[in-house]
Amino acid sequence: MQLRSRLARKHEERKILVADDDALTRRLLEKTLQQAGYEVVVAENGRKALEFLSSAEGPRLALLDWLMPGLNGVEVCREIRRRTEFPYIYIILLTSKTSKVDVVHGLEAGADDYITKPCDAEELKARLRSGERILKLEDKLTYDALHDPLTQLPNRSFFLERLMLCVSWGMLHPDYKFAVLSVDMDRFKVVNDSLGITAGDWLLVQIAERLLGSIRRDDAILRTAEVGGMAGGLAEVGLVARVGGDKFTILLDNIRNASEGIRVAERIQKSIQAPFDVDGQTVFTTASVGIAFSGTGYSAAEDMLGDANTAMARAKTLGKARYEMCDPSMHATAAGRFRLETDLRLATEKREFLVHYQPIVSLIDFRITGFEALVRWQRPGFGLVMPGGFISAAEDTGLILWIGEWILQEACRQIRAWNEQFPCSPRFTMAVNISAKQFAQANLVSQVARVLSETGLAPETLRLELTESVTMRDEERTTRILSELRDLGVRLCIDDFGTGYSSLSYLRRFALDILKIDRSFVTDMLNNSESHEIVKTILSLGKNLRMKVVAEGVETLEQMTLLKSLGCEFAQGYLFSRPLDSAAVERTLAESQANSYTLPQESAVNLVAPLK
After folding, report:
1. Which end of the chain is more exposed for a tag (fewer CB within 10 A), N or C?
2. Residues 135 and 201 in one domain
3. What is the pLDDT of residues 297-319, one digit of tens each?
4. Peptide bond before 149: cis, by omega within 30 degrees of 0?
């Protein structure tokens, strides 16, 4: 989304447009103006002039020839004056016309001044100086109309204008998320009544500074870039506004979810609770914050701000010095997400993760051939949390990179130890999932190489599992990275295969080793002819491409029997074993037949020893 400010850009840049179809006139004017210290942009016709003046970085001063091909100077004036969203542009017409009728015609079209050809250099520079003074006045009037004179923050009008742009963009792009925070001081009237209005004003200035300090660049918010004006793009992040009295509003733009609003609200409250120094006296205050999130769907800026104000009022009613969301159910969800992300960060510091291992079994002799490493989180107060309960948050916070590398290191260390403790031929393998963010890292190959070196693991015993969506994003890069990984000696596997038919033609190009049939097809193949055919197709494809195929999610004897009849050689699932911790795996291997680890076949529940 491109948000262009109504505030003027710095006119001190002294950029000026010279538009004239006569090349000699352009060169003379350009030389004169450059000597006077201007940055000159030239155009040979009216359409080019309009293009320059309409751009985000276009000049604020313009010399337009009255008569030009296409659009003449007067027509360019009319078009520019119709575009009220742009900062004011000071336009001087260059003309050989001298009659009053012509001059009036040009001024009525929107020109600010005119000068007759040939131009006198000193007269031209004097008229331009006059134009610069007018632009300064225009900028000041615009700034004053949109800013609070005490704190210099944007005011309510400015805030609503920006918020409406976000609302409009959100209606067109459902994935775009933003939030509004309404912030009200809880004890401000006490300060005004006891210390006076001047002290109260000084406190408001300090509060404004702390609010700006509470908004960080990583919140992806619109920030007022400087006192003299506001940048128009999302790269400049931050809009904090004073909307009256001791009330402030904050616009959080392009956020991931509602929990980011809570994160900012808590930071604001912590900042405001610190003591203020007002005329040598220590003053304490707190803030009540209301949060409205775009996920509930808004079509009007006033409605969203109103909901944030309502939530703020509820925060005051419930005891002040707290935050509330306009939707209580959303509040619970966002608060839970915020706590999850916080606990997840602590978990990486405290090493609260562990790895469970699900055996992969040969359907020919029921021998354990390897394991898949699956992460678990021993979350305090919640018990053992499965990946579905935290992986999404790990990806959003970027912690998936740390978790992924830790799993890789732990799984490689563990499978080497088991291969030494329980020797067999061929050796046990270990499958480790690689997330999309891990795969996108520039140092993925070197990271895998380092882990193999540090753990002393034979590369051919490691299987890296990727989803189809990861491999489809950038075919050229994927081909290069997979080739480099294969050069290390590791084996490559496509996980959840069958959910993305578009990648079938890429299998040979990517030189993959293993396909894992998605569990949804295995579950449905007995009752759904389409799933049955998909499983057959994948098995046939794997055979033709000389790739191993592993069926995931095998839970019944009927599923296993059908897979064997279709020629599937490997499987994993609850029929054989749930994922086991390392101690349970070692008990299973110790109780199996030495050196071959062929599992008993008397009953399904005994194929792999259960967790004891």
Report:
1. C
2. no
3. 788 899 899 889 989 988 888 88
4. no
